[in-house]
Write a structure and sequence with these properties.
This protein is mainly alpha-helical. Helices cover 70% and strands 1% of the residues. It has 2 domains: 263 residues, ABC transporter involved in vitamin B12 uptake, BtuC; 308 residues, no CATH class. Helix 1 runs parallel beside helix 5. The protein is globular and about 80 Å long.
Protein backbone atom coordinates (compact mmCIF):
# COMPACT_ATOMS: atom_id res chain seq x y z
CA UNK A 1 0.00 0.00 0.00
CA UNK A 2 1.52 3.37 -1.03
CA UNK A 3 1.97 5.89 1.79
CA UNK A 4 -0.46 8.76 2.23
CA UNK A 5 1.92 11.25 0.64
CA UNK A 6 2.06 9.28 -2.61
CA UNK A 7 -1.73 9.06 -2.72
CA UNK A 8 -1.92 12.82 -2.13
CA UNK A 9 0.53 13.41 -4.98
CA UNK A 10 -1.64 11.21 -7.16
CA UNK A 11 -4.64 13.36 -6.30
CA UNK A 12 -2.62 16.42 -7.33
CA UNK A 13 -1.74 14.86 -10.71
CA UNK A 14 -5.34 13.80 -11.18
CA UNK A 15 -6.54 17.30 -10.33
CA UNK A 16 -4.36 18.88 -12.99
CA UNK A 17 -5.57 16.39 -15.59
CA UNK A 18 -9.15 16.63 -14.34
CA UNK A 19 -9.34 20.34 -15.14
CA UNK A 20 -8.65 19.58 -18.79
CA UNK A 21 -11.04 16.62 -18.68
CA UNK A 22 -13.80 18.95 -17.47
CA UNK A 23 -12.98 21.23 -20.41
CA UNK A 24 -13.33 18.28 -22.80
CA UNK A 25 -16.73 17.35 -21.37
CA UNK A 26 -17.98 20.96 -21.26
CA UNK A 27 -17.20 21.63 -24.92
CA UNK A 28 -18.55 18.29 -26.07
CA UNK A 29 -21.87 18.73 -24.29
CA UNK A 30 -22.34 22.30 -25.53
CA UNK A 31 -20.62 22.35 -28.93
CA UNK A 32 -20.12 18.68 -29.88
CA UNK A 33 -16.40 19.32 -30.25
CA UNK A 34 -13.61 17.21 -28.75
CA UNK A 35 -11.09 20.03 -28.37
CA UNK A 36 -7.68 18.36 -28.47
CA UNK A 37 -6.12 21.83 -28.23
CA UNK A 38 -7.35 22.20 -24.63
CA UNK A 39 -4.07 21.15 -22.87
CA UNK A 40 -1.89 23.17 -25.25
CA UNK A 41 -4.13 26.21 -24.91
CA UNK A 42 -3.79 26.02 -21.15
CA UNK A 43 -0.02 25.86 -21.38
CA UNK A 44 0.02 29.13 -23.36
CA UNK A 45 -1.57 30.89 -20.40
CA UNK A 46 0.63 28.98 -17.98
CA UNK A 47 3.89 29.84 -19.71
CA UNK A 48 2.86 33.49 -20.07
CA UNK A 49 2.06 33.63 -16.35
CA UNK A 50 5.43 32.10 -15.52
CA UNK A 51 7.32 34.54 -17.72
CA UNK A 52 5.51 37.52 -16.20
CA UNK A 53 6.53 36.27 -12.75
CA UNK A 54 10.12 35.27 -13.57
CA UNK A 55 11.19 37.71 -16.28
CA UNK A 56 9.04 40.76 -15.51
CA UNK A 57 8.88 40.49 -11.72
CA UNK A 58 5.09 40.42 -11.46
CA UNK A 59 3.31 39.00 -8.45
CA UNK A 60 1.75 35.62 -9.17
CA UNK A 61 -1.64 36.89 -8.06
CA UNK A 62 -1.50 39.59 -10.75
CA UNK A 63 0.04 37.42 -13.44
CA UNK A 64 -2.35 34.46 -13.07
CA UNK A 65 -5.51 36.44 -14.03
CA UNK A 66 -3.68 37.76 -17.09
CA UNK A 67 -2.79 34.21 -18.11
CA UNK A 68 -6.38 33.09 -17.62
CA UNK A 69 -7.73 36.00 -19.68
CA UNK A 70 -5.25 35.26 -22.48
CA UNK A 71 -6.31 31.62 -22.45
CA UNK A 72 -9.98 32.58 -22.57
CA UNK A 73 -9.35 35.05 -25.41
CA UNK A 74 -7.38 32.49 -27.44
CA UNK A 75 -10.12 29.93 -26.93
CA UNK A 76 -12.79 32.32 -28.17
CA UNK A 77 -10.60 33.38 -31.10
CA UNK A 78 -10.04 29.76 -32.12
CA UNK A 79 -13.76 29.04 -31.98
CA UNK A 80 -14.81 32.17 -33.86
CA UNK A 81 -12.09 32.12 -36.54
CA UNK A 82 -11.85 28.38 -37.24
CA UNK A 83 -14.41 26.14 -35.60
CA UNK A 84 -17.45 28.38 -36.12
CA UNK A 85 -16.82 28.16 -39.86
CA UNK A 86 -17.12 24.37 -39.66
CA UNK A 87 -20.43 24.02 -37.82
CA UNK A 88 -22.11 22.18 -40.69
CA UNK A 89 -19.36 19.63 -41.26
CA UNK A 90 -19.10 16.22 -39.56
CA UNK A 91 -17.56 15.97 -36.10
CA UNK A 92 -14.43 14.25 -37.41
CA UNK A 93 -13.54 17.39 -39.35
CA UNK A 94 -13.74 19.47 -36.17
CA UNK A 95 -11.50 16.95 -34.44
CA UNK A 96 -8.90 17.41 -37.18
CA UNK A 97 -9.19 21.19 -36.91
CA UNK A 98 -8.44 21.01 -33.19
CA UNK A 99 -5.34 18.94 -34.00
CA UNK A 100 -4.06 21.85 -36.09
CA UNK A 101 -4.93 24.31 -33.33
CA UNK A 102 -3.11 22.11 -30.80
CA UNK A 103 0.06 22.31 -32.88
CA UNK A 104 -0.29 26.07 -33.25
CA UNK A 105 -0.67 26.49 -29.48
CA UNK A 106 2.31 24.18 -28.98
CA UNK A 107 4.42 26.47 -31.13
CA UNK A 108 3.10 29.48 -29.23
CA UNK A 109 3.95 28.28 -25.72
CA UNK A 110 7.35 27.16 -26.96
CA UNK A 111 7.97 30.59 -28.51
CA UNK A 112 7.00 32.66 -25.44
CA UNK A 113 10.27 31.97 -23.52
CA UNK A 114 12.27 33.01 -26.61
CA UNK A 115 10.38 36.31 -26.67
CA UNK A 116 11.41 36.90 -23.05
CA UNK A 117 15.07 36.11 -23.78
CA UNK A 118 15.08 32.33 -23.28
CA UNK A 119 14.34 32.34 -19.54
CA UNK A 120 12.41 29.29 -18.37
CA UNK A 121 9.10 29.91 -16.52
CA UNK A 122 10.21 28.25 -13.29
CA UNK A 123 8.36 29.65 -10.30
CA UNK A 124 6.51 28.57 -7.19
CA UNK A 125 3.50 29.84 -5.25
CA UNK A 126 3.82 30.77 -1.59
CA UNK A 127 0.57 30.40 0.34
CA UNK A 128 2.23 30.96 3.69
CA UNK A 129 1.82 27.34 4.73
CA UNK A 130 2.62 23.82 3.48
CA UNK A 131 1.10 20.39 4.07
CA UNK A 132 3.45 17.68 5.27
CA UNK A 133 2.10 14.25 4.38
CA UNK A 134 4.71 11.56 4.87
CA UNK A 135 6.94 11.19 2.90
CA UNK A 136 6.23 14.41 0.94
CA UNK A 137 5.54 18.06 1.54
CA UNK A 138 2.78 19.61 -0.57
CA UNK A 139 3.61 23.20 -1.52
CA UNK A 140 1.39 26.03 -2.66
CA UNK A 141 0.82 24.82 -6.26
CA UNK A 142 -0.12 21.33 -5.05
CA UNK A 143 -2.63 22.73 -2.56
CA UNK A 144 -4.18 25.04 -5.15
CA UNK A 145 -4.57 22.14 -7.58
CA UNK A 146 -6.42 20.09 -4.97
CA UNK A 147 -8.72 23.05 -4.30
CA UNK A 148 -9.23 24.00 -7.95
CA UNK A 149 -10.67 20.70 -9.24
CA UNK A 150 -13.74 20.42 -6.97
CA UNK A 151 -14.41 24.15 -7.23
CA UNK A 152 -14.26 24.09 -11.03
CA UNK A 153 -16.35 20.90 -11.25
CA UNK A 154 -18.99 22.37 -8.94
CA UNK A 155 -18.98 25.70 -10.80
CA UNK A 156 -19.27 24.15 -14.27
CA UNK A 157 -22.02 21.78 -13.14
CA UNK A 158 -23.88 24.71 -11.56
CA UNK A 159 -23.39 26.77 -14.73
CA UNK A 160 -24.84 24.05 -16.95
CA UNK A 161 -27.83 23.22 -14.77
CA UNK A 162 -28.78 26.46 -13.03
CA UNK A 163 -27.88 29.36 -15.31
CA UNK A 164 -29.86 30.43 -18.35
CA UNK A 165 -26.71 30.62 -20.47
CA UNK A 166 -25.68 27.09 -19.45
CA UNK A 167 -29.10 25.63 -20.22
CA UNK A 168 -29.07 27.43 -23.57
CA UNK A 169 -25.60 26.01 -24.27
CA UNK A 170 -26.83 22.48 -23.56
CA UNK A 171 -29.75 23.10 -25.91
CA UNK A 172 -27.35 24.16 -28.64
CA UNK A 173 -25.31 21.01 -28.10
CA UNK A 174 -28.38 18.80 -28.39
CA UNK A 175 -30.13 20.47 -31.34
CA UNK A 176 -28.58 23.71 -32.53
CA UNK A 177 -31.17 24.42 -35.24
CA UNK A 178 -34.12 24.06 -32.87
CA UNK A 179 -32.36 26.13 -30.20
CA UNK A 180 -31.77 28.94 -32.71
CA UNK A 181 -35.41 28.75 -33.78
CA UNK A 182 -36.41 29.26 -30.14
CA UNK A 183 -34.35 32.46 -29.99
CA UNK A 184 -31.11 31.23 -28.40
CA UNK A 185 -28.25 33.63 -29.34
CA UNK A 186 -25.85 30.92 -30.46
CA UNK A 187 -22.85 33.17 -31.06
CA UNK A 188 -22.98 34.84 -27.65
CA UNK A 189 -23.63 31.57 -25.78
CA UNK A 190 -20.78 29.72 -27.45
CA UNK A 191 -18.44 32.65 -26.86
CA UNK A 192 -19.15 32.45 -23.13
CA UNK A 193 -18.73 28.67 -23.04
CA UNK A 194 -15.43 28.71 -24.94
CA UNK A 195 -14.11 31.51 -22.75
CA UNK A 196 -14.89 29.41 -19.68
CA UNK A 197 -13.19 26.38 -21.20
CA UNK A 198 -10.10 28.45 -22.06
CA UNK A 199 -9.90 29.83 -18.54
CA UNK A 200 -10.19 26.31 -17.08
CA UNK A 201 -7.39 25.07 -19.32
CA UNK A 202 -5.26 28.03 -18.28
CA UNK A 203 -5.77 27.18 -14.60
CA UNK A 204 -4.40 23.71 -15.32
CA UNK A 205 -1.46 25.13 -17.28
CA UNK A 206 -0.65 27.77 -14.65
CA UNK A 207 -0.54 25.17 -11.87
CA UNK A 208 1.15 22.40 -13.89
CA UNK A 209 4.35 24.38 -14.61
CA UNK A 210 5.48 24.81 -10.97
CA UNK A 211 4.46 21.18 -10.27
CA UNK A 212 5.66 19.34 -13.38
CA UNK A 213 8.28 21.74 -14.75
CA UNK A 214 8.84 23.07 -18.25
CA UNK A 215 11.58 22.76 -20.89
CA UNK A 216 12.18 24.48 -24.21
CA UNK A 217 12.52 21.10 -25.94
CA UNK A 218 9.10 19.54 -26.05
CA UNK A 219 7.52 21.98 -23.62
CA UNK A 220 5.43 20.24 -21.02
CA UNK A 221 3.01 18.30 -23.24
CA UNK A 222 3.98 14.68 -22.56
CA UNK A 223 2.06 11.53 -23.53
CA UNK A 224 1.10 11.06 -19.90
CA UNK A 225 -0.47 14.54 -19.66
CA UNK A 226 -2.59 13.98 -22.77
CA UNK A 227 -3.49 10.49 -21.63
CA UNK A 228 -4.51 11.57 -18.12
CA UNK A 229 -6.56 14.44 -19.58
CA UNK A 230 -8.44 12.69 -22.39
CA UNK A 231 -8.90 9.23 -20.87
CA UNK A 232 -11.11 10.31 -17.90
CA UNK A 233 -13.41 12.26 -20.22
CA UNK A 234 -13.72 9.28 -22.56
CA UNK A 235 -14.29 6.86 -19.67
CA UNK A 236 -17.05 9.21 -18.46
CA UNK A 237 -18.67 9.05 -21.89
CA UNK A 238 -18.02 12.77 -22.47
CA UNK A 239 -21.19 13.37 -20.47
CA UNK A 240 -20.54 13.64 -16.73
CA UNK A 241 -18.56 16.51 -15.23
CA UNK A 242 -18.18 14.77 -11.86
CA UNK A 243 -17.55 11.44 -13.56
CA UNK A 244 -14.61 12.89 -15.47
CA UNK A 245 -13.26 14.55 -12.31
CA UNK A 246 -13.46 11.35 -10.25
CA UNK A 247 -11.97 9.25 -13.05
CA UNK A 248 -9.05 11.66 -13.34
CA UNK A 249 -8.39 11.44 -9.60
CA UNK A 250 -8.49 7.63 -9.72
CA UNK A 251 -6.08 7.52 -12.68
CA UNK A 252 -3.77 10.01 -11.00
CA UNK A 253 -3.57 7.93 -7.83
CA UNK A 254 -3.06 4.77 -9.86
CA UNK A 255 -0.25 6.37 -11.87
CA UNK A 256 1.59 7.77 -8.86
CA UNK A 257 1.22 4.46 -7.01
CA UNK A 258 2.82 2.70 -9.97
CA UNK A 259 5.66 5.23 -9.92
CA UNK A 260 6.20 4.59 -6.20
CA UNK A 261 6.17 0.81 -6.63
CA UNK A 262 8.56 0.67 -9.59
CA UNK A 263 10.73 3.65 -8.60
CA UNK A 264 10.96 5.16 -12.11
CA UNK A 265 8.59 6.86 -14.50
CA UNK A 266 8.86 4.32 -17.30
CA UNK A 267 7.09 1.31 -15.76
CA UNK A 268 4.49 3.63 -14.23
CA UNK A 269 3.51 4.98 -17.64
CA UNK A 270 3.45 1.45 -19.03
CA UNK A 271 1.20 0.21 -16.22
CA UNK A 272 -1.11 3.19 -16.77
CA UNK A 273 -1.34 2.38 -20.47
CA UNK A 274 -2.14 -1.28 -19.76
CA UNK A 275 -4.76 -0.31 -17.17
CA UNK A 276 -6.53 1.91 -19.69
CA UNK A 277 -6.50 -0.87 -22.28
CA UNK A 278 -8.20 -3.18 -19.79
CA UNK A 279 -10.68 -0.50 -18.67
CA UNK A 280 -11.73 0.29 -22.22
CA UNK A 281 -12.02 -3.39 -23.07
CA UNK A 282 -14.36 -4.26 -20.20
CA UNK A 283 -16.37 -1.03 -20.17
CA UNK A 284 -19.96 -1.70 -21.15
CA UNK A 285 -21.38 0.25 -24.03
CA UNK A 286 -19.53 2.07 -26.70
CA UNK A 287 -17.04 4.61 -25.48
CA UNK A 288 -17.56 7.91 -27.26
CA UNK A 289 -20.67 6.52 -28.93
CA UNK A 290 -22.13 9.95 -29.59
CA UNK A 291 -19.04 10.93 -31.56
CA UNK A 292 -20.15 8.44 -34.23
CA UNK A 293 -23.37 10.33 -34.85
CA UNK A 294 -21.99 12.09 -37.93
CA UNK A 295 -19.73 10.41 -40.42
CA UNK A 296 -16.90 12.27 -42.12
CA UNK A 297 -17.19 10.59 -45.50
CA UNK A 298 -18.98 13.65 -46.87
CA UNK A 299 -15.95 15.81 -46.18
CA UNK A 300 -13.90 16.29 -49.32
CA UNK A 301 -10.56 15.50 -47.69
CA UNK A 302 -11.96 12.26 -46.28
CA UNK A 303 -12.95 10.90 -49.68
CA UNK A 304 -10.45 8.63 -51.37
CA UNK A 305 -8.99 9.45 -54.76
CA UNK A 306 -11.34 8.21 -57.46
CA UNK A 307 -9.91 5.09 -59.14
CA UNK A 308 -9.61 4.90 -62.90
CA UNK A 309 -12.36 3.06 -64.76
CA UNK A 310 -11.44 -0.55 -65.46
CA UNK A 311 -11.28 -0.09 -69.25
CA UNK A 312 -8.92 2.88 -68.93
CA UNK A 313 -6.75 1.27 -66.25
CA UNK A 314 -6.14 -1.75 -68.52
CA UNK A 315 -5.14 0.44 -71.46
CA UNK A 316 -1.61 -0.45 -72.53
CA UNK A 317 -0.45 3.16 -72.69
CA UNK A 318 -1.86 3.99 -69.27
CA UNK A 319 -0.32 0.82 -67.84
CA UNK A 320 3.06 1.65 -69.35
CA UNK A 321 2.88 5.24 -68.06
CA UNK A 322 2.14 3.95 -64.56
CA UNK A 323 5.13 1.59 -64.64
CA UNK A 324 7.35 4.38 -65.93
CA UNK A 325 6.21 6.79 -63.23
CA UNK A 326 6.76 4.17 -60.52
CA UNK A 327 10.26 3.44 -61.82
CA UNK A 328 11.12 7.13 -61.86
CA UNK A 329 9.82 7.51 -58.31
CA UNK A 330 11.89 4.55 -57.09
CA UNK A 331 15.04 5.95 -58.69
CA UNK A 332 14.29 9.42 -57.30
CA UNK A 333 14.02 8.16 -53.71
CA UNK A 334 17.11 5.93 -53.86
CA UNK A 335 19.55 8.52 -55.18
CA UNK A 336 19.55 11.13 -52.35
CA UNK A 337 21.09 8.86 -49.68
CA UNK A 338 24.03 8.25 -52.02
CA UNK A 339 24.62 11.97 -52.59
CA UNK A 340 23.89 13.56 -49.21
CA UNK A 341 26.25 14.19 -46.30
CA UNK A 342 25.98 11.99 -43.17
CA UNK A 343 23.72 14.52 -41.43
CA UNK A 344 21.67 14.86 -44.61
CA UNK A 345 21.23 11.11 -44.78
CA UNK A 346 19.90 11.11 -41.22
CA UNK A 347 17.37 13.81 -42.11
CA UNK A 348 16.37 12.01 -45.29
CA UNK A 349 15.94 8.62 -43.61
CA UNK A 350 13.86 9.97 -40.73
CA UNK A 351 11.71 12.03 -43.14
CA UNK A 352 11.09 8.97 -45.34
CA UNK A 353 10.17 6.91 -42.28
CA UNK A 354 7.84 9.67 -41.13
CA UNK A 355 6.21 9.75 -44.58
CA UNK A 356 5.68 6.00 -44.33
CA UNK A 357 4.04 6.53 -40.95
CA UNK A 358 1.77 9.20 -42.46
CA UNK A 359 0.61 6.64 -44.99
CA UNK A 360 -0.24 4.39 -42.06
CA UNK A 361 -2.51 7.16 -40.75
CA UNK A 362 -4.11 7.51 -44.20
CA UNK A 363 -4.66 3.75 -44.26
CA UNK A 364 -6.38 3.81 -40.86
CA UNK A 365 -8.82 6.40 -42.17
CA UNK A 366 -9.17 5.10 -45.72
CA UNK A 367 -10.07 1.52 -44.79
CA UNK A 368 -11.21 1.73 -41.15
CA UNK A 369 -12.67 5.19 -40.64
CA UNK A 370 -10.36 6.00 -37.72
CA UNK A 371 -8.45 9.23 -37.06
CA UNK A 372 -5.53 7.90 -34.96
CA UNK A 373 -4.10 10.42 -32.51
CA UNK A 374 -1.19 8.36 -31.20
CA UNK A 375 -0.18 6.26 -34.19
CA UNK A 376 3.47 7.26 -33.98
CA UNK A 377 3.49 5.63 -30.56
CA UNK A 378 2.92 2.27 -32.26
CA UNK A 379 5.90 3.10 -34.45
CA UNK A 380 7.93 3.61 -31.27
CA UNK A 381 6.84 0.21 -29.95
CA UNK A 382 7.85 -1.34 -33.27
CA UNK A 383 11.23 0.40 -33.04
CA UNK A 384 11.77 -0.95 -29.52
CA UNK A 385 10.92 -4.48 -30.68
CA UNK A 386 13.29 -4.14 -33.64
CA UNK A 387 16.09 -3.10 -31.30
CA UNK A 388 15.63 -6.22 -29.20
CA UNK A 389 15.94 -8.59 -32.14
CA UNK A 390 19.46 -9.74 -32.95
CA UNK A 391 19.03 -10.11 -36.71
CA UNK A 392 19.48 -8.30 -39.99
CA UNK A 393 17.49 -5.17 -40.79
CA UNK A 394 14.97 -6.95 -43.10
CA UNK A 395 14.16 -9.47 -40.35
CA UNK A 396 13.74 -6.66 -37.82
CA UNK A 397 11.40 -4.88 -40.23
CA UNK A 398 9.27 -7.96 -40.83
CA UNK A 399 8.95 -8.93 -37.17
CA UNK A 400 8.19 -5.38 -35.96
CA UNK A 401 5.70 -4.84 -38.78
CA UNK A 402 3.82 -8.06 -38.07
CA UNK A 403 3.79 -7.41 -34.32
CA UNK A 404 2.43 -3.87 -34.67
CA UNK A 405 -0.14 -5.01 -37.22
CA UNK A 406 -1.38 -7.59 -34.72
CA UNK A 407 -1.36 -5.08 -31.82
CA UNK A 408 -3.26 -2.36 -33.72
CA UNK A 409 -5.74 -4.97 -34.98
CA UNK A 410 -6.34 -6.19 -31.42
CA UNK A 411 -6.86 -2.63 -30.22
CA UNK A 412 -9.35 -2.15 -33.04
CA UNK A 413 -11.22 -5.27 -31.93
CA UNK A 414 -11.29 -4.03 -28.34
CA UNK A 415 -12.80 -0.65 -29.25
CA UNK A 416 -15.43 -2.22 -31.53
CA UNK A 417 -17.12 0.91 -32.91
CA UNK A 418 -16.13 3.17 -35.79
CA UNK A 419 -14.68 6.63 -35.13
CA UNK A 420 -14.90 6.35 -31.35
CA UNK A 421 -12.40 8.10 -29.12
CA UNK A 422 -11.52 4.79 -27.46
CA UNK A 423 -9.07 3.90 -30.21
CA UNK A 424 -7.50 7.36 -29.91
CA UNK A 425 -7.02 6.86 -26.17
CA UNK A 426 -5.34 3.52 -26.83
CA UNK A 427 -3.06 5.25 -29.33
CA UNK A 428 -2.05 7.75 -26.66
CA UNK A 429 -1.41 4.80 -24.35
CA UNK A 430 0.98 3.43 -26.97
CA UNK A 431 2.64 6.87 -27.17
CA UNK A 432 3.13 6.78 -23.40
CA UNK A 433 4.55 3.25 -23.49
CA UNK A 434 6.88 3.77 -26.49
CA UNK A 435 9.65 5.76 -24.71
CA UNK A 436 9.62 3.20 -21.90
CA UNK A 437 10.03 0.34 -24.33
CA UNK A 438 12.85 2.10 -26.18
CA UNK A 439 14.74 2.91 -22.97
CA UNK A 440 14.43 -0.68 -21.81
CA UNK A 441 15.71 -1.94 -25.17
CA UNK A 442 18.95 0.08 -25.05
CA UNK A 443 20.25 3.46 -26.16
CA UNK A 444 17.95 3.69 -29.18
CA UNK A 445 20.66 2.84 -31.71
CA UNK A 446 20.74 0.32 -34.56
CA UNK A 447 24.17 -0.07 -36.12
CA UNK A 448 23.15 0.29 -39.77
CA UNK A 449 24.50 2.07 -42.82
CA UNK A 450 22.35 5.19 -43.14
CA UNK A 451 22.67 5.10 -46.93
CA UNK A 452 21.10 1.64 -47.09
CA UNK A 453 18.46 2.60 -44.54
CA UNK A 454 17.54 5.74 -46.46
CA UNK A 455 17.16 3.83 -49.72
CA UNK A 456 15.04 1.13 -48.07
CA UNK A 457 12.83 3.75 -46.41
CA UNK A 458 12.30 5.60 -49.69
CA UNK A 459 11.53 2.44 -51.66
CA UNK A 460 9.14 1.17 -49.00
CA UNK A 461 7.33 4.51 -48.95
CA UNK A 462 6.81 4.43 -52.73
CA UNK A 463 5.93 0.73 -52.66
CA UNK A 464 3.38 1.25 -49.87
CA UNK A 465 1.75 4.09 -51.82
CA UNK A 466 1.45 1.93 -54.95
CA UNK A 467 0.11 -1.04 -52.94
CA UNK A 468 -2.52 1.06 -51.19
CA UNK A 469 -3.71 2.47 -54.52
CA UNK A 470 -4.01 -1.07 -55.89
CA UNK A 471 -5.99 -2.21 -52.85
CA UNK A 472 -8.25 0.81 -53.09
CA UNK A 473 -8.97 0.05 -56.75
CA UNK A 474 -9.83 -3.61 -56.08
CA UNK A 475 -13.26 -5.05 -55.33
CA UNK A 476 -12.15 -5.87 -51.80
CA UNK A 477 -10.98 -2.28 -51.26
CA UNK A 478 -14.28 -0.91 -52.56
CA UNK A 479 -16.06 -3.10 -50.02
CA UNK A 480 -13.89 -1.73 -47.22
CA UNK A 481 -14.68 1.83 -48.28
CA UNK A 482 -18.40 1.02 -48.35
CA UNK A 483 -18.19 -0.47 -44.86
CA UNK A 484 -16.39 2.64 -43.64
CA UNK A 485 -18.89 5.06 -45.12
CA UNK A 486 -22.08 3.21 -44.16
CA UNK A 487 -21.48 0.37 -41.69
CA UNK A 488 -25.23 -0.10 -41.17
CA UNK A 489 -25.91 -0.98 -44.81
CA UNK A 490 -22.62 -2.71 -45.60
CA UNK A 491 -23.93 -6.18 -44.56
CA UNK A 492 -26.52 -5.90 -47.34
CA UNK A 493 -23.57 -6.00 -49.76
CA UNK A 494 -22.08 -9.03 -48.03
CA UNK A 495 -19.41 -6.95 -46.21
CA UNK A 496 -18.80 -7.29 -42.47
CA UNK A 497 -17.90 -3.76 -41.24
CA UNK A 498 -16.19 -5.00 -38.07
CA UNK A 499 -13.99 -7.42 -39.96
CA UNK A 500 -13.02 -4.85 -42.61
CA UNK A 501 -12.28 -2.29 -39.87
CA UNK A 502 -9.92 -4.69 -38.11
CA UNK A 503 -8.25 -5.55 -41.43
CA UNK A 504 -7.76 -1.86 -42.24
CA UNK A 505 -6.27 -1.13 -38.82
CA UNK A 506 -4.02 -4.19 -39.08
CA UNK A 507 -2.73 -2.97 -42.42
CA UNK A 508 -2.10 0.44 -40.86
CA UNK A 509 -0.17 -1.19 -38.01
CA UNK A 510 1.99 -3.12 -40.47
CA UNK A 511 3.04 0.15 -42.08
CA UNK A 512 3.78 2.13 -38.91
CA UNK A 513 5.69 -0.80 -37.38
CA UNK A 514 8.11 -0.78 -40.29
CA UNK A 515 8.30 3.03 -40.14
CA UNK A 516 9.41 2.92 -36.51
CA UNK A 517 12.30 0.54 -37.21
CA UNK A 518 13.45 2.61 -40.18
CA UNK A 519 13.25 5.82 -38.14
CA UNK A 520 15.46 4.51 -35.37
CA UNK A 521 17.83 2.86 -37.85
CA UNK A 522 18.32 6.27 -39.53
CA UNK A 523 19.66 7.87 -36.33
CA UNK A 524 23.12 6.43 -35.56
CA UNK A 525 23.51 8.76 -32.57
CA UNK A 526 20.23 7.60 -30.99
CA UNK A 527 16.77 9.12 -30.88
CA UNK A 528 15.81 12.17 -28.85
CA UNK A 529 13.49 11.76 -25.83
CA UNK A 530 10.47 13.17 -27.66
CA UNK A 531 11.01 11.29 -30.92
CA UNK A 532 7.83 9.23 -30.45
CA UNK A 533 5.84 11.66 -28.30
CA UNK A 534 2.26 12.87 -28.82
CA UNK A 535 3.29 15.98 -30.74
CA UNK A 536 4.97 13.75 -33.33
CA UNK A 537 1.75 11.73 -33.62
CA UNK A 538 -0.21 14.94 -34.20
CA UNK A 539 2.35 15.98 -36.84
CA UNK A 540 1.83 12.61 -38.50
CA UNK A 541 -1.92 13.21 -38.64
CA UNK A 542 -1.28 16.74 -39.94
CA UNK A 543 0.78 15.37 -42.82
CA UNK A 544 -1.99 12.95 -43.74
CA UNK A 545 -4.61 15.72 -43.68
CA UNK A 546 -2.55 18.15 -45.74
CA UNK A 547 -1.87 15.43 -48.30
CA UNK A 548 -5.47 14.27 -48.33
CA UNK A 549 -6.57 11.48 -46.02
CA UNK A 550 -7.57 9.29 -48.94
CA UNK A 551 -4.37 9.78 -50.96
CA UNK A 552 -1.15 7.87 -50.14
CA UNK A 553 0.73 9.85 -52.80
CA UNK A 554 -0.54 13.06 -51.24
CA UNK A 555 0.87 11.94 -47.89
CA UNK A 556 4.30 11.53 -49.51
CA UNK A 557 4.20 15.02 -51.03
CA UNK A 558 2.92 16.61 -47.81
CA UNK A 559 5.62 14.85 -45.77
CA UNK A 560 8.31 16.23 -48.09
CA UNK A 561 6.89 19.77 -47.99
CA UNK A 562 6.27 19.99 -44.24
CA UNK A 563 9.59 18.37 -43.40
CA UNK A 564 11.42 20.85 -45.63
CA UNK A 565 9.55 23.75 -43.99
CA UNK A 566 10.44 22.50 -40.49
CA UNK A 567 14.10 22.13 -41.48
CA UNK A 568 14.36 25.56 -43.11
CA UNK A 569 12.49 27.65 -40.53
CA UNK A 570 14.24 28.46 -37.25
CA UNK A 571 12.77 27.30 -33.94
CA UNK A 572 10.24 27.80 -32.56
CA UNK A 573 8.51 28.93 -35.75
CA UNK A 574 9.14 25.62 -37.50
CA UNK A 575 6.70 24.00 -35.09
CA UNK A 576 3.84 26.14 -36.44
CA UNK A 577 4.05 24.88 -40.03
CA UNK A 578 2.10 21.64 -39.70
CA UNK A 579 -0.57 23.21 -37.48
CA UNK A 580 -1.12 26.11 -39.85
CA UNK A 581 -1.16 23.66 -42.75
CA UNK A 582 -3.95 21.63 -41.16
CA UNK A 583 -6.08 24.68 -40.33
CA UNK A 584 -5.68 26.15 -43.82
CA UNK A 585 -6.47 22.83 -45.49
CA UNK A 586 -9.58 22.28 -43.38
CA UNK A 587 -10.85 25.80 -44.10
CA UNK A 588 -9.85 26.49 -47.69
CA UNK A 589 -8.50 23.35 -49.40
CA UNK A 590 -10.41 20.38 -47.97
CA UNK A 591 -9.01 17.84 -50.41
CA UNK A 592 -5.39 18.79 -49.73
CA UNK A 593 -2.94 17.66 -52.41
CA UNK A 594 -5.20 14.74 -53.33
CA UNK A 595 -7.45 16.74 -55.66
CA UNK A 596 -4.45 18.20 -57.51
CA UNK A 597 -2.94 14.72 -57.91
CA UNK A 598 -6.23 13.41 -59.26
CA UNK A 599 -6.48 16.28 -61.74
CA UNK A 600 -2.90 15.75 -63.00
CA UNK A 601 -3.57 12.02 -63.39
CA UNK A 602 -6.79 12.59 -65.36
CA UNK A 603 -5.08 15.16 -67.62
CA UNK A 604 -2.24 12.70 -68.30
CA UNK A 605 -4.71 9.94 -69.19
CA UNK A 606 -6.49 12.24 -71.63
CA UNK A 607 -3.16 13.29 -73.15
CA UNK A 608 -2.33 9.62 -73.74
CA UNK A 609 -5.53 9.26 -75.74
CA UNK A 610 -6.96 6.63 -73.41
CA UNK A 611 -10.24 8.44 -72.85
CA UNK A 612 -11.67 10.78 -70.24
CA UNK A 613 -11.60 9.16 -66.76
CA UNK A 614 -13.83 11.82 -65.23
CA UNK A 615 -17.34 10.61 -64.37
CA UNK A 616 -19.83 11.66 -66.98
CA UNK A 617 -22.45 14.10 -65.85
CA UNK A 618 -26.04 13.18 -66.46
CA UNK A 619 -27.66 15.31 -69.12
CA UNK A 620 -30.28 17.71 -67.88
CA UNK A 621 -33.82 16.55 -68.71
CA UNK A 622 -35.25 18.15 -71.78
CA UNK A 623 -37.83 20.85 -71.25
CA UNK A 624 -41.36 19.63 -71.83
CA UNK A 625 -42.78 20.57 -75.20
CA UNK A 626 -45.23 23.43 -75.31
CA UNK A 627 -48.83 22.25 -75.47
CA UNK A 628 -50.34 22.34 -78.90
CA UNK A 629 -53.83 23.72 -79.22
CA UNK A 630 -55.96 21.55 -81.43
CA UNK A 631 -59.04 23.10 -82.97
CA UNK A 632 -61.88 20.89 -83.98
Amino acid sequence: MPPAGIIALGLVSGSLAGLNSIGFVLLWRTSRVVNLAQPGLGLVGGVLTGMLVVASGWSFWWAAPVGMMVGAALSVFAERSVLARLQEVPRSVLLIATVGLAQIFSGMYTAIPFIFGGTLPTYTIDLGFDLEIDPLVLLGPHILALIALPLVAFGVNLFLTRSRVGVAALALGQDSERARALGVPAGLVRTIVWAIAGAIGSISGILSIPILGFGLEGGALTPTILLLALAPAVLAGLRSIWGAALASLALGVFFQSALWIFGTGGPGELVLALALVVALAIRRGRVGRESTAARASSWEAATTVRPLPWAIARNIRVHAAGLTLTTIAVVAVTLPPLLLSPSGRVSYGTAAAFALGAMGVSTAWMFAGELPLGHWGFAGLGAALGMRIDASLPIRLIVASLAMGLLVGVFGALTRSHSSLAFSVLGLAAAAAAPVAIRSAGRGILDQDTRIVGMIAGVLAVGAAVLLVKIRSSVFGAGMIAARDDPARAPWLGVDPRRTRIIGLTLSGLIVGAAGVLYIASTPAGVTPGAFGPEQSLSLLAIAVVGGLGSPAGALIAAAGLTAAQRLLPPPWNGLTSGLGVVLVVLFLPAGFARAIEGIRDATVRALGAGDPRPKRANAPAAPAAPVEVQV
